[in-house]
Amino acid sequence: MARILVSACLLGVECRYKGDACPCRKVIDLIDGNELIPVCPEQAGGLPTPRTPSERVGDKVIMRDGTDVTIEYKKGAETALYLAGKFNIDYAVLKANSPSCGKGMIYDGTFTGSKCEGNGVTAELLIRNGYKVYTEDEI
C-alpha cells in the first residue's frame, strides 16, 4: 500500500479556480490498495473557491486582475508539505499545468493558455524536499 498526496480536484472535489473539479479516472483508481491524502493548496492557502485565475510569473503568482497571491500559494504549499510529512507519503500526484501543482510545464503568466517549462509552487517545494511528484498525465 502506498500513501499518495493527491490534488483534491483530481478526485472530484470542486476546488478549482472555476469552482469545478477535474476528476481523473486513473487517479481515482489509485484508491484501490492505496491511501490517498487529498489537498487543494490554493484553498489551504486561504483562497476562496471560485477565484480569479492565477499564473506563475517567476517567483510570484499573480491573478489575472494583477493581485499578487504569492503568499497564499506559499502557505498552501507549506500545508501540502506538512501533510506529506505527517502521512509519510510515498509520492504525490498533482494537477498538471497548475501554478500550484504543475510539474515540468505550467501556464506562462500571460493568461493566453500558453505554457512554459517550470513547476508550480507546491510541486517545487515537495520536489525540493525530496518527494517524488507526478502529474495525472504521468501515471
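Second entry:
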Amino acid sequence: MANEAASAERFVADVLSYCQGFKAISLFVVLDGASQDQTLVLLRQLSQREPQLKVIWAPENRCVVDAYVRGYREALAADCDWILEIDAGYSHQPQDIPKFFDQLDLGCDCVFGTRFSRAGQHTESTWFRYGLSRFGGALVNLLLGTQLSDMTSGFEAFTQETLRSVLRRGIRSKGHFFQSEIKTHCRNLNIAEVPISYRAASPSVNKKVIQDALLNLARLFGARLQGKLK
C-alpha cells in the first residue's frame, strides 16, 4: 500500500469483512518509501484497534517486487495456511476475495484472478495497458507453456506449500513481469482462474519495465529449452 490515506482504513475494513469463517485471519499491509502521505501513520493507529491488521514498514525496499516478497515472507513466517495477495487502493475489489477461498477449499494449489475471462472486467485503463497485458500474456503462454488467460494479474492466492515452493525457485524480475514468473513456476500445479474486476491500472509501465520483462522472458524460455524449467 502506498499513498492511500484517503481509502486505507475503508480498504482494510472491506478486506477483513470478506475474510470470514477462518480460525484466524491476519492482514499484512506492506509500506515503504514510495508512500509519502499519512498512510503509514493512519494504519499504525488503526492497528492499535484492529489486532488482525499487521503493518509492515519496509524502508529497505528498492522496487515493487520487494514489497510483494516481503508480504509473502511475513505471511509464511506467521505460518498462514492460505495466503491471498491483493493490491490496495481498490484496483482489486475486496468482494472478489471469496472466489479465491472457494477454489482453495476445493483443493487447488493456487488461484489466479483473471480480468480477461467472460465474467472478468478491466476498466479505467488505457488501451495501451490493456493491449500490453493481453499481448504479453499470449507471448508468455506461447514461449513458456503456460495456459492462463491473464498472466499479469496480481490478485491471487496460494497454499503455504505452493508459496514456499515459488520462493525457493526464486523471483528474479524486478518489474511487473514477476507476476508472470510466479505463474510460470506454478504451471504444473492444480490451478484455477476466477474472474475479477480490475480498475485503474498503474501508469508505471515504462521502457525499463518492458526491458525487464523481455530479459526475464528470454531467460525462462532458455531454461525451458534446456529442460531446466520445472
